[in-house]
Structure formats: structure tokens, C-alpha cells
């Protein structure tokens, strides 16, 4: 019997059930000499011994498995994993006792014999562990006073994992990295350079500069660190996860730093732009009515990366964070008062705990499609590239091993390579288990649907693994279903009835209709009804459509109604960055104006966009700042501006709380109070009546319909994108009910939204140009 067959027939306790298939196929592949085993042979070996030790000693099948393992890997490997060899004494550093170490877990771990370091590299020929001790300041910082320990491939390597264990090493405040060397054959995809100290991909904390955007330290080096001294974080006895059903979510996309970095936040300077700053502004989120925040990247990134060499963008600071250095470590410069990585970790948890206490879920925007290491022309090597470029990145074998670029950022992570796939899964689990996050939005997720050669896959292993993973089962998983290589998968993203999608077609179609494009009436109906043309497949639901009009990239809502063209000169790329097709309309004038007529149209249009978003079936998402009409002055790609272009302007919010903000928050609360907007299933003829008898009228930009409520509180809606008024037919209300006007975007505040409604009479309603109405049937 093959090892894989033995394992598949072996009965395990439930806790080991998820490990069995992985171990079975891996061990079988290793035994057969496969170089593409599911995990590195060393991890297979260690897992095998752990599982075998749990089995009964009298179990003959396990005895045969042990025997086969010994034959495959040899008794020396067995002894090495179990750390049965005698320790050595360091000759290059302090008088530590040094053990060969163990291959799992990857990263740094505390074991009985000390601090264990383990890192993967399939192609490296030499690895050196570099340690910077707590008193490194006395020796000139991370590059000075480093202790370097060369790993012996005969003693410190199992399969493709290099490992070492050090006794009496401090349990915290140690910085570490690695030097790697190996083949220098560029055409074969190798990029080894032993002069660079690299970050461990599995480092749970990363140390770099302490203050965000500090130009005095723009060339700071980044190293991993760890902490085994601190007590576990206290989540509290009364703590619980919000566990909000997907159909009930209202998502608020935001940036941690930009939310409170501006002086107008009123926070102390040490708190601005931090995780703690978010906590202080939770009352605003509650007043607005959102119940989930989607944070732009919070994994460690180097905001000063554009300034490391002369280039057209060397005046900018990366404030969005789509340039990951490490997939496990929280962004350390979001800690308060320059507190560093350990404080960042603690304060991130405090932020999550506070948000959960307020009933708000936390979704992370994660970037697994590329890293910060750029391209081959101007590489910024900090980790993966120097550890094993050929494994971690997609390469073009027909072009001398050059990096493939499906991300638009110079490199593409090799997501469906077994080792990279496991890295991604381990990272996601870490954020769920350690930080209690509620979900993930995957940037350029179509990259994760490509094979190791870059070709699209019908059933990508990493996408399936995320959908089926037990630890991730409670999480929302959201794809941005496209990439920069032309793989556009809106409505077709591999999903296993689990993945939701940013619905880019919703965004585009809603923009077209509201600005008055012809021929969009039927499409508007499809989108507000939940995009059944895209998602009514298998067991998918309306809430798998993440509906949005505005997101972080592109125009803000105010700019969408104020600019026909992008204005990106400040980015330094000669206007070549950012989309040229924004489906926007400036309402008659480009940019700022004092014309009251144009300003009134813009105000109505912003309300129209917000209303249609919040009454649509599916999951609505809005952008931070749109609740007070934030402007970026026409810049539709503001990733590099740590200024008021991106910073939330709390002073403007105060001046607009009585009108624009009031309308936005009331519409959100109205949605959440009425289940008719968040059906679990797609609408049928009993759920909606379309007041339209000429769907083929290309010139018509008016649509009216009634959503039927099981309790008789029907909702009538009409959207008029004509430049003239439309006398709309209003059907009779349900029995013993009367229509009350709740929304008319043509009216000034507070009449644009009246919570209790204003009674209406007659069978028609005059809907003003570029405006919309909402009527509610109520008992008289």
C-alpha cells in the first residue's frame, strides 16, 4: 500500500482531520521524488512524526508508515527534527548553546531548547542568520553589531527548510534577518545577493523607522522581531464577535492613517493617524450608521519607497499601502507615538476590540498579488526576491527568467505555487486567530486565479483553499475580480458559493444612468435588483455582489460630479497614471465653481448616487469622506499624497452635518431598518413591480418601481436622469396604507429626507430633473 493510501484510510481525531489530506499527498509526492510537493519535505516529515506519535503504538499501519518515513528520509533526518543531537557552542557570538533546530513552524518560535528559527528556500546554497541584540544602539544599529550564524546544510536543513535553535537568546527585543546565497543565473530566475540582510517572510513583527513619513530615516532597513515576554492580549470576558450576516453589511472603505492624520481631527499629535485614532472616531462611524469598515492595507509597508532613488515620483509618500513588505506584521508606523511593532500589534487588537464592542466588523484589504520588491529594472529587495525569487514570483521562461507583471507593479506573486499558497493561508489564519479580523478583500484577486506560468485557472487551488478553510469559515471573503493582465472576472470569479465580488459592472452602470446616459434603464433595473445576470448561479446570493459607486482608487463622489477629466499632475507621472474613463459628469463646469445652479445639481447627483446604492439588493460599500463630499481636486489616483488630498477633513464634516452628512446617515439607517433592501434571495415577481411598459425606449432615462414588503410597508422609488421633470405614475398603496414621501433629492435639507415621511396625495408625483424620490406605504 502507498503511504498516501495508508494515510487516507487512517482514522484520526477531529483536530487532525484537516491536516490529513495535506500530509498524505505531500508525503507521497516527496517519496516519489516530486519537486512540486504540496509542502516542503521537511514540513511533511515533521507533521508525519507528530501525527504518528499521536497514533497508538500498537497500530501496525502506523508502524509501517514510520518505517517508510525512515527509508525515505533517513534516521539522521528523523533525529534532527526531534532535536536529539547535542548542542554546539557559538564561536562567533555570545556563548549560546546552539541546536540544529526544527523545520516547523516557519518563522520564530519558542521551544523547549530555546528560540527556533526556520525559513524556506529551495534554491539557496547557503543561509546565514543575522541577529541584532537589544543593546544594538551601542554598536551602531541593525547593520552594526550584528551576530551572524552560518547554517550548515548538513545539520541545519531538512528538505527545503533551513533551521537553527538558540538557547538563552533574549525572548524579545531581538531583531533578525537572513543572508542568502545561491545560483547567480539570472536567466533561470535566480536573484540571490548575500550582501543584503532579508526579512523573514514569516516574521510576525517587523521593525523599521518609527514615525510615518520621516524623511530623516527614509533609507531605514527593515528586520523581523519577536516577543515571547508579553502576556496574551486580554480580549475581555464580555467580548464577542459581531458576526453580522453578509446581507446586512454596510461597508465603509477607509485608510487608518488618513482617517485621523489631519489636525482637524482634534486628536493629540501622537495619536493622529494611528490605530488608536480610529478608536477615538468610532462615534462618527456609529452616527453614520455603517457596521463594517474595510481598511486599506495594514500589513507592513515602506511608505518612503518612492524616495529611495531619483525618479518622477520621489516627492511622494505611499499612503495607501499597496506595497507589502510582510504578510504577517501589522503596519508598525500606525502605532501611537512612534511606539514600534510590538505596540502596533497591541493597539491593532485594541482597535478591533473597540470596533467589535460597537458592533462594527473589521475587513482587511489584503495584497497577495505582488510585493514591494518592484521589477528587475529597479528592484527593492527586502525579502522574497533574495530568498527564492524563482519560487515566490511568476517568471517568464521564454524571456530569460524575467518577472511577469500581472499586477501593474513590476512583479506578480506566485500564488498557486504550493509554498506561496501555504504562506498566504498561514497569513490569513494569523490575522483571524491573533487579531480577530472578520474578513478580507483581496486586491487584484484575479492574480490568485493564475497558475505558476501566469495562465488562468478554472479552479485555482488557493481560491478553493480559502473558501474551504476551517479557520477562515466565519470570515467574509471578497475579491476584486480583475487584474492588470486583462483577466476580468466580474460575475465569473471562481467562488465555491462563498466568495463575494466587487461588482465593477454595478459601479459603471450606475454611473452611466445617473449622469444621464441613454439606453441604461433596463441595466439599472438589473443592478438595483441584485445583478442576477451575474450572481444568480448555483447557490450564490445577492449579497455576493459588493455594490459600490466610489472606491479608494478613482474619483471621490464629489469629484465624480465635478470633473470630466482626471487632474493627476501632482503625481509626477505626466498624467499617464489613473483611469481616463471615469464615467463622470461635471454638471456643466470643470472643478470648483460659484455657480449656484451647478452646485445644486452636483448636490442632487451625490444624493442620487447614495440613494440608489443604499436601496440596491446586495452589499453596499461607500468611501471614507463621501459623507461630507470630500474632494481630491480631480486626482483619481492619489496613492502618494499624505496631505489633505487624502486626509479626512473633520472641519468640513462639521460644516456639512446639517445637510449633506445628515442625508447620507439617514439613508443608511433607513436601509438597515427595512429588510426589503437586503433580500436573502434574488427578487421574484412578488417582490418587485416595475412601473415600465416600454423597456426598449432608448432615450428614456427614467425608472420607477415598487419593492413589496410582507408587512405592507411597500417602498416606491423613482430615478429621473433627464434634464426635465417627469410626472411619474404612483400606484395605489396597499390596503389601509398611504404613501409618505421620505426622500426627494431635489428638496433642500431637512426636507430632502424626512424620517416620518410627508403624506402625499394623488396618483402622480412630479420628479424634478436629475433627482430621485422614495415613498413609503404607512398605516393611516
UniProtKB/TrEMBL annotation:
CC terms in the record's Gene Ontology section: chloroplast
Gene3D superfamilies: Glycosidases, Golgi alpha-mannosidase II, Immunoglobulins
Chain ranges passing through the membrane: none
Pfam families, per database record: Alpha-amylase, CBM_48, ISOA1-3_C
Keyword Plastid applies: yes
Biological process (GO), any one: carbohydrate metabolic process
Record has Iron as a keyword: no
Keyword terms: Chloroplast, Plastid, Transit peptide
Gene Ontology molecular function, alphabetical: isoamylase activity
Domain (Glycosyl hydrolase family 13 catalytic): residue spans on this chain: 253-671
Lineage top rank: taxon: Eukaryota
Cellular localization per UniProt: Plastid, Chloroplast
Similarity comment: Belongs to the glycosyl hydrolase 13 family.
PANTHER family: GLYCOGEN DEBRANCHING ENZYME
UniProt-recorded name of the protein: Isoamylase 3, chloroplastic isoform X3
Upper classification of the organism: Eukaryota, Viridiplantae, Streptophyta, Embryophyta, Tracheophyta
Amino acid at each position: 500500500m502507498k503511504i498516501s493510501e495508508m494515510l487516507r484510510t487512517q482514522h484520526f481525531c477531529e483536530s487532525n482531520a484537516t491536516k490529513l489530506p495535506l500530509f498524505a499527498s505531500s508525503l507521497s509526492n516527496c517519496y516519489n521524488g516530486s519537486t512540486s510537493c504540496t509542502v516542503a519535505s521537511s514540513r511533511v516529515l515533521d507533521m508525519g512524526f507528530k501525527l504518528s506519535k499521536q497514533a497508538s503504538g500498537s497500530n501496525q499501519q502506523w508502524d509501517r508508515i514510520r518505517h517508510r518515513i525512515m527509508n525515505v528520509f533517513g534516521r539522521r533526518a528523523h533525529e534532527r527534527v526531534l532535536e536529539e543531537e547535542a548542542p554546539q557552542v557559538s564561536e562567533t557570538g555570545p556563548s549560546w548553546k546552539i541546536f540544529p533546530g526544527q523545520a516547523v513552524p516557519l518563522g520564530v518560535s519558542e521551544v523547549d531548547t530555546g528560540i527556533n528559527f526556520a525559513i524556506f528556500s529551495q534554491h539557496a546554497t547557503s543561509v546565514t542568520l543575522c541577529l541584532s541584540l537589544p543593546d544594538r544602539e551601542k554598536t551602531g544599529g541593525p547593520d552594526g553589531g550584528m551576530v551572524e550564524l552560518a547554517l550548515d546544510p548538513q545539520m541545519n536543513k531538512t528538505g527545503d527548510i533551513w533551521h537553527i535553535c538558540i538557547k538563552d537568546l533574549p525572548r524579545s527585543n531581538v531583531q533578525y534577518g537572513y543572508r542568502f546565497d545561491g545560483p547567480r543565473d539570472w536567466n533561470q530566475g535566480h536573484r540571490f545577493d548575500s550582501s543584503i540582510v532579508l526579512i523573514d517572510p514569516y516574521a510576525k513583527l517587523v521593525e523599521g523607522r518609527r514615525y510615518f513619513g520621516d524623511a530623516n530615516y527614509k533609507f531605514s532597513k527593515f528586520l523581523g522581531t519577536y516577543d515571547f515576554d508579553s502576556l496574551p492580549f486580554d480580549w475581555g470576558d464580555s467580548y464577542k464577535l459581531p458576526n453580522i450576516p453578509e446581507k446586512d453589511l454596510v461597508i465603509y472603505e477607509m485608510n487608518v492613517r488618513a482617517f485621523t492624520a489631519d489636525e482637524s481631527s482634534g486628536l493629540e499629535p501622537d495619536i493622529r493617524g494611528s490605530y488608536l485614532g480610529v478608536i477615538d472616531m468610532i462615534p462618527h462611524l456609529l452616527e453614520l450608521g455603517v457596521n463594517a469598515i474595510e481598511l486599506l492595507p495594514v500589513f507592513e509597508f515602506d511608505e518612503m519607497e518612492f524616495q529611495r532613488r531619483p525618479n518622477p515620483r520621489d516627492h511622494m509618500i505611499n499612503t495607501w499601502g499597496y506595497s507589502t513588505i510582510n504578510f504577517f506584521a501589522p503596519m508598525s508606523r500606525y502605532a501611537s507615538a512612534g511606539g514600534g511593532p510590538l505596540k502596533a500589534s497591541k493597539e491593532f487588537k485594541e482597535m478591533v476590540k473597540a470596533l467589535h464592542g460597537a458592533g462594527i466588523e473589521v475587513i482587511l484589504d489584503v495584497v497577495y498579488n505582488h510585493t514591494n520588491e518592484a521589477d528587475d529594472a529597479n528592484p527593492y529587495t527586502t525579502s522574497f526576491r533574495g530568498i527564492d525569487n524563482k519560487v515566490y514570483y511568476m517568471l517568464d521562461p521564454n524571456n530569460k527568467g524575467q518577472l511577469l507583471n500581472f499586477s501593474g507593479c513590476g512583479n506578480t506573486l506566485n500564488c498557486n505555487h504550493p509554498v506561496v499558497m501555504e504562506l498566504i493561508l498561514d497569513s490569513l489564519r494569523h490575522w483571524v486567530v491573533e487579531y480577530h479580523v472578520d474578513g478580507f478583500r483581496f486586491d487584484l484577486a484575479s492574480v490568485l486565479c493564475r497558475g505558476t506560468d501566469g495562465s488562468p485557472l478554472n479552479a485555482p487551488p488557493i481560491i478553493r483553499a480559502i473558501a474551504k478553510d476551517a479557520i477562515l469559515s466565519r470570515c467574509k471573503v471578497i475579491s476584486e475580480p480583475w487584474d492588470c493582465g486583462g483577466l476580468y472576472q466580474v460575475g465569473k470569479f471562481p467562488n465555491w458559493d462563498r466568495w463575494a465580488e466587487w461588482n465593477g459592472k454595478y459601479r459603471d452602470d450606475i454611473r452611466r444612468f445617473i449622469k444621464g446616459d441613454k439606453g441604461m434603464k433596463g441595466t439599472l433595473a438589473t443592478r438595483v435588483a441584485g445583478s442576477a445576470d451575474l450572481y444568480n448561479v448555483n447557490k450564490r446570493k445577492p449579497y455576493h455582489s459588493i455594490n459600490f459607486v466610489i472606491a479608494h482608487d478613482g474619483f471621490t463622489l464629489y469629484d465624480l460630479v465635478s470633473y470630466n477629466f482626471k487632474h493627476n499632475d501632482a503625481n509626477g507621472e505626466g498624467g499617464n497614471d489613473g483611469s481616463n474613463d471615469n464615467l463622470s459628469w461635471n454638471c456643466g463646469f470643470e472643478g470648483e465653481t460659484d455657480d449656484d445652479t451647478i452646485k445644486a445639481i452636483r448636490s442632487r447627483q451625490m444624493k442620487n448616487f447614495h440613494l440608489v446604492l443604499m436601496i440596491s439588493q446586495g452589499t453596499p460599500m461607500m468611501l471614507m469622506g463621501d459623507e461630507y463630499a470630500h474632494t481630491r481636486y480631480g486626482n483619481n489616483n492619489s496613492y502618494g499624497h499624505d496631505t489633505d488630498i487624502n486626509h479626512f477633513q473633520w472641519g468640513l464634516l462639521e460644516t456639512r452635518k446639517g445637510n449633506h452628512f445628515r442625508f447620507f446617515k439617514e439613508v443608511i439607517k433607513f436601509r438597515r431598518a427595512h429588510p426589503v433592501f437586503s433580500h436573502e434571495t434574488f427578487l421574484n415577481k412578488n417582490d418587485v413591480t416595475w412601473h415600465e411598459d416600454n423597456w426598449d425606449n432608448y432615450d428614456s432615462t427614467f425608472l420607477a418601481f415598487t419593492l413589496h414588503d410582507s408587512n405592507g410597508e411597500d417602498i416606491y422609488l423613482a430615478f429621473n436622469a433627464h434634464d426635465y421633470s417627469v410626472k411619474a405614475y404612483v400606484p395605489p398603496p396597499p390596503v389601509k396604507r398611504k404613501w409618505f414621501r421620505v426622500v426627494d433629492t431635489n428638496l433642500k435639507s431637512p426636507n430632502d429626507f424626512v424620517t416620518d415621511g410627508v403624506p402625499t396625495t394623488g396618483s402622480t408625483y412630479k420628479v424634478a430633473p436629475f433627482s430621485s424620490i422614495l415613498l413609503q406605504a404607512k398605516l393611516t
